[in-house]
Amino acid sequence: MLLCASRFATSLSFMVYAGALVPAMQAWGMSAGEAGSIQTAFNIGYALSLVGSSWFADSLGAKRVFLWASWATALTGLAFAFFARSPESGLLLFALVGLTQGGTYAPSIMLVAQGVPAARRGAAVGWLLAAGSLGYFASIALAAWLAERFGYEAAFIACGLGPLLAALLATPGLRGRANPVAGGGARRLRGAFRFLADRRSFLLTAGYTTHCWELLGMWAWLPAFLTASLANSGGAGVRGLWIAAAIHLSGFLSSLLMGRASDRLGRRAVLVAMGLLGAACSFTIGWMDGMPLVLVLAVAALYGFSALGDSPVLSTAMTESVEPGSLGAALAVRSILGFGAGGAAPLAVGLVLDQTGGMAGQMGGTPWGWGFALLGVGGGLATVCALLLPADRPHRS
């Protein structure tokens, strides 16, 4: 319970920039490309952190790496909250947040995998990631409301305190927990690159890479799109809640339901369904600006559900494809590929928006449509990877 609570609190700072994006762009005088570069800097730092923490979790233990990363994230979260006041400082400090926060992700999955049998592992990983999605909901809702009511500075400070709370929760939560350490660096390295020779591991890694492209790009730009669509409705607080609910409460539900569904129906079936649905949403939602708000929010909720629904399944399937002593190293390789590709997505979408009309002029469907269609390519490729996976059988408890 404390591990999930810590995941929730850490996630409060993950989406703060996306939630406060429009007010921050106006205050700092940024173009869409410049705004996207800050999120990309965070994603690149996050990817590097994922790689390092995953690799060292084998030799140092997942518990130790997780706690170190939690306290480092608390420090960088506070630095971003109080000192990010320009495009330059924002880019540097948000990159540092990503560079530390990624260290809490893979070790937490490893901690779950170490203690939960395969028949319930999908559901357990789903609970962990669902706690993160609930944190993303709170992050965007709080950031959007505070940024429009009191300024982006208030949003940064309120959400930046989340990682400190996470570290305070994680420390007692893991007290007395074993810290298994694997030896043999060469053995870990062979396990890390097993996907080069194993069809299932290779396809899972390729699917994760394309999944990250779609997911990270969607997380960065969908709040801004919904802010534009909801500009003439309600107050700032209401808009922030609608945006966060559409994206991340649906993601919370999908993490819970799809992890459990993969235990019952098999990993491959769930990955195919989520890949198809996510790609369909990517190719659709950008052209919906100006349509009835109920319809736009419904598709956004479906988008959030599908884009995150394969996350617990991909992570669970990877823990089952790699031997435990090499799991951290394998997750490191997966992370550099997935978040390396996903880290570029916000910048790529921002450049498309600039080239097709941008956000400064009309907020019509054409620039948004092409931007989200670029993300849909990732969803389509993830579906292909899932279809090519060997058939698997549901786990029986």
Automatic annotation (TrEMBL):
One of its GO terms (cellular component) is plasma membrane. GO terms for molecular function: transmembrane transporter activity. InterPro entries: MFS, MFS_dom, MFS_Efflux_Transporters, MFS_trans_sf, Sugar_transporter_CS. Pfam families: MFS_1 (PF07690). It is found in: Cell membrane. The keyword Transmembrane helix applies. It is a multi-pass membrane protein. SUPFAM superfamilies: MFS general substrate transporter (SSF103473). The chain crosses the membrane at residues 36-58, 65-84, 90-113, 125-146, 152-170, 202-221, 241-258, 270-288, 294-315, 327-348, 368-389. Keywords: Cell membrane, Membrane, Plasmid, Signal, Transmembrane, Transmembrane helix. Residues 1-18 form the signal peptide. PROSITE patterns: MFS, SUGAR_TRANSPORT_1, SUGAR_TRANSPORT_2. Residues 1-394 form the Major facilitator superfamily (MFS) profile domain. It comes from the Bacteria. This is Major facilitator superfamily transporter. The lineage of its organism: Bacteria, Pseudomonadati, Pseudomonadota, Alphaproteobacteria, Rhodospirillales.
